[in-house]
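Entry 14: structure prediction run for Cytochrome P450. Input pasted below.
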Amino acid sequence: MSVLLVSLLLLIPILLLLRRRKSSKRVPPGSLGIPIIGQSLGLLRAMRANTAEKWVIERTKKYGPVSKLSLFGKPTVLLYGQAANKFIFSGGGNTIVNQQTQSIKMILGDRNLLELSGEDHSRVRSALVSFLKPESLKQYVGKMEDEVIRHLDMHWQGKQHVKVLPLMKTLTFNIICSLLFGLERGKQRDQFLDSFQLMIEGMWSVPINMPFTRYNRSLRASARIQTMLKEIVHKKKMELKQKVASDRQDLISCLLGMVDEDDKQVMTEKEIIHNIMLVMVAGHDTSSVVITFIIRVLANEPAISAAVLQEQEEIAKSKPSGEPLTWEDLSKMKYTWRVAMETLRMFPPIFGGFRKAATDIEYDGYLIPKGWQIFWVTAMTHMENSIFPDPSKFDPSRFENQASIPPYSFIPFGGGARMCPGYEFARVETLVAIHYLVTRFTWKLCSDNFFSRDPMPVPSQGLLVHIWRRKLS
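Run finished. Output tokens:
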């Protein structure tokens, strides 16, 4: 009996060891690399050298479309392809939850939409959409137009050369301050911009909080911005209470004015601040990059530039002098928006995104362990010949019939329930800016076509162009 008991006791650790080995074989192939750093520096180097797509392709050739690595301090599984996109945006159910890298979470706050799941995600997303949906945005076209015209008068008019990307970032920041915060031009807006630019530099960084690191600078800038936003929120809350302001005048006022059936505020103050920061980053960086790359495309593609100009001039000539753009005018800019969509296909502002496995997940024959980070790459399906024939050719006609594009293969704004709530805001912002740029100016590139990612695309010299004033033909 004692011999049998001893044998069983000896057998248990062996069985556990075998089981562990069996399970470990099911984890995707690859290496986690050096603790904390992992493959983060390699990916960041590839992005800055504009070879990130090649970096991903080499991994998939070596390990397949599912592989393990370590990014920004966490064990990660890289998923690649149309099936992976579908799994991320629709098939994951409750097994995949929102979670960004530690750097993004700490900089933007843990109650922003990218960190929320389930009922919290639905509640906060619905609140944001109430302001950002087309029905609401119609009344803000004129306000956006005023910011664009003022920007061109201040920074383009009378100039021979301009750096497009820095100027587009200035424009989108001013639009955000005007429409989302109701923050007037002046010292406070300028202080906001300085801290904001420092904050976004460390969004994708190794989360080592030591002096002189990008991450540390971004954290400190984030703290300053949150303090400024808290002051703005308190001021607007008081104005709404005293009924000297409307809850539709800007995004902060809108969110403060939203209450549920029990007359309880839908979003907490912390959630409002963290999501305002998220919308700031999304509306500032992505839109400025898209507009910059459309300008780059129009300089490189004369036939496409002529077609965009023709569409915009027809709209301009159909209106009495000085009459502002309307929502109906934007709906006529079909070709211009197809150019924007093709620009997003070839030069997506977002290279990839992150999620977290809420439980052990079986995917494509592998185990994604609970708590691991999931990294998916936006741009890869955009350049697959089987989905977009001759993918290196810039061809806006691909988007004449979007129903013909396979689901989950074109995802610059996400998909399914995770579709970016700021999609319509970005569309309006882009079309208004392009309308006035092409009808007022013509340009040619003074710099090469190279761009790096940091983490968004940054053209060399900020896309330096030579500009001329154009007269409406």
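Notes: DSSP finds 17 helices and twelve strands in the chain. Will compare against the previous run tomorrow.
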